[in-house]
Amino acid sequence: MRKFAIPLESGRLCSHFGHCKQFALIDVKENTITSQEFLTPPPHEPGLLPAWLAEKGVTHIIAAGIGQRAINLFTQHNIEVCVGAESDLPENIVRNYLDKTLETNDNLCDH
């Protein structure tokens, strides 16, 4: 079982991870989406979101832009990070990741 976290703004992938208003947490079993829930993150503080998402059982993050420090913290929590995804609905992003058709570009975050 894998659990993906997608940072959202207005129901779509947020361009900057730390500024998202909500997370879609999507459970995947045998390459099939089995459930999806939406959570409001705690107020943003450096280093808080990796621990919070790890507590939720997240195994993968898909983001557009995310800072290198956050990437390192997620790695320390054994959470795989995919950056440079384009804005879309969270279930489409995860489905494309699973199908190996997710297109990524440069990390949109420069810190």
Layout of helices and strands:
Elements: E1 2-9, E2 12-13, E3 22-29, E4 32-39, H1 48-55, E5 60-62, H2 68-76, E6 80-82, H3 90-98
Question: TL;DR?
Answer:
The chain has 111 residues and is of the alpha/beta class. It is built from 3 helices and 6 strands. Strands 1, 2, 3, 4, 5 and 6 form a 6-stranded mixed β-sheet that branches.
The tally of domains stands at 1
Give the second-level CATH assignment, the architecture: 2-Layer Sandwich
* Order of SSEs: EEEEHEHEH
State which percent range the strand residues make up: 25-35%
Low-confidence stretches: none
What global shape is seen?
Answer: globular
What does it look like?
It is built from 3 helices and 6 strands. It is 23% helix and 29% strand. The N and C termini lie far apart (32 Å). The chain has one domain: Dinitrogenase iron-molybdenum cofactor biosynthesis domain (Nucleotidyltransferase, domain 5). Strands 1, 2, 3, 4, 5 and 6 form a 6-stranded mixed beta sheet that branches. The model has no long low-confidence stretch (mean pLDDT 92). It has 111 residues and is α/β, with parallel strands linked by helices.
